[in-house]
Amino acid sequence: MSGSQLWEDVDDYFISHLSPDDDALRAALRDSEAAGLPSIAVTAAQGKFLQLLAQVQGARNILEIGTLGGYSTIWMARALPEDGRLVSLEYSAKHADVATRNIARAGLERIVEVRVGPALESLPKLADENPAPFDLVFIDADKANNAHYVEWALRLSRAGSLIVVDNVVRGGRVTDAGSTDPDVVGTRAAIELIAGHPRLSGTALQTVGGKGHDGFALARVLG
């Protein structure tokens, strides 16, 4: 058995026991695939992890940068109270349309708002609304702008908020200081921003599983 097959088998075992899906989640993946969206959504185990983080935070307000088909959105929104709010920013109108339908089918349209457009244009508009601080920010969009997204997450959060940056391993290429790949450059900039910022305490973990060799960074906002 290859290493990658073993990783997937272990993922399947954990998911079947600890984070089984349901009709709404299965339909979100099915309809995303049918619409031609890229198969890059978080796994069920990762979705449950995000949900648990939101619950540990006692989150009432969540910001997601990068909606795709709304699969991760559904996992996180289910952790919110009835008067909670999740704002998800999506570049593609097509993706946002699929996500909006998936979110509505999951019964979460009252607490989830999907905003369409480049996130670096949507974020200043969101800040101008002076929203309540976000308790959890999940960054899973274009990697070249990861550092900018972390800066905005810090601006829109509070002491004690959590910032999660997905896909930071880049298949191990994150270690290449000479890389000119915008995804690697942007990810390294985000890691180095977290490392050096006086208001952030963070770490990063490698993962293996259904998404291969990957990982995420987690940062807590300090007072």
From TrEMBL:
<keyword id="KW-0949">S-adenosyl-L-methionine</keyword>
<keyword id="KW-0808">Transferase</keyword>
<dbReference type="InterPro" id="IPR050362">
    <property type="entry name" value="Cation-dep_OMT"/>
</dbReference>
<keyword id="KW-0489">Methyltransferase</keyword>
<protein>
    <submittedName>
        <fullName>O-methyltransferase</fullName>
    </submittedName>
</protein>
<dbReference type="Pfam" id="PF01596">
    <property type="entry name" value="Methyltransf_3"/>
</dbReference>
<dbReference type="InterPro" id="IPR002935">
    <property type="entry name" value="SAM_O-MeTrfase"/>
</dbReference>
<dbReference type="InterPro" id="IPR029063">
    <property type="entry name" value="SAM-dependent_MTases_sf"/>
</dbReference>
